[in-house]
Amino acid sequence: MRYLISRLLWLPVVLWAVASLTFLVLRLTPGDPMGQVANLIVDQAQIDRIRAEWGLDQPLWQQYLAFLGNLATGSMGVSMASGMPVSALLAQKMPPTIELALVSMLIATLIGVSAGVISATTRRRAVDFAARGLAVLGLSIPWFWIAIMLIFIFAVQLRWFPVGGRIGVGVDYTTITNFIFLDQLLTGNWAGLASALHHIALPALAIGLTTSGFVMRMTRSSMLEVLHREYVRSARSRGLPEHRVLWGHALRNAMLPVITLLGLQFGALLGGAVITELVFSWPGMGRMLLDGILRRDYAVVQGTVIFVAFFYVTANLAVDIFYHFLDPRLRES
Length: 333
What we know:
2 domains; mainly alpha; single chain
């Protein structure tokens, strides 16, 4: 409990550091958010009035204090491009990105853990070399190339999956939480759920295949270390079936570093799947962040980065808590 409280106390400190760094980087980067407006408006007086409305005419320290004041009250500001609150934009764009990250992590975990266990138990055999080669290949190929190949093969040639979007055009569905899978379950719309799964398959597979390489290598190395432990030999000497030794004894202890990797990868997926979202026309935070950077929309970039940082820290905290359920030594200490 003391450890949990200390981590929770550090959470606002980390978010303040991320917010401050993002604020400074945006202001110190060459360029002006009024550049596009100046191209459309000739009247300098109107440009000065708009600059004053957004507080861009104030000194940097005053802008920083105003930014921290809004953040302390839970306000992330208003988008300069759309005029909408950033919190409302995040409420629209956050669910698609979280769903894509979760499904991608599920695919990466299933493929990576299974391949890692098989590779560790067939060490220096053909299966082991094939699994390790595929893992290196997955780590070497970028997401966007895998995404383009998946689209070319399964969407263009075979026509098994759609190219982009979250759900079919002609599918009727009711939006409740903007998490499309949860909404279909709450409303009992099984046709909508099937369509949503059909649309998320290719983008999630493109990200999951790359991430599975990391998971596979970590699982393999951790399993090779655990398989030589005394408790594994004791379990085999008691006559337990090999599948119970592997999945019940060895894998449970070998999963500790793998869970750490999964927590870090989940945070990275939330903020790093920009190109994949662009390739598949996925309406998530990645596209919103990229548009905000190109338009110099300070509020959108700051709000998105802070939100991703919050999820990143929270994911690592959840990993640390989950450790206590897997490792009894931590519960005893």
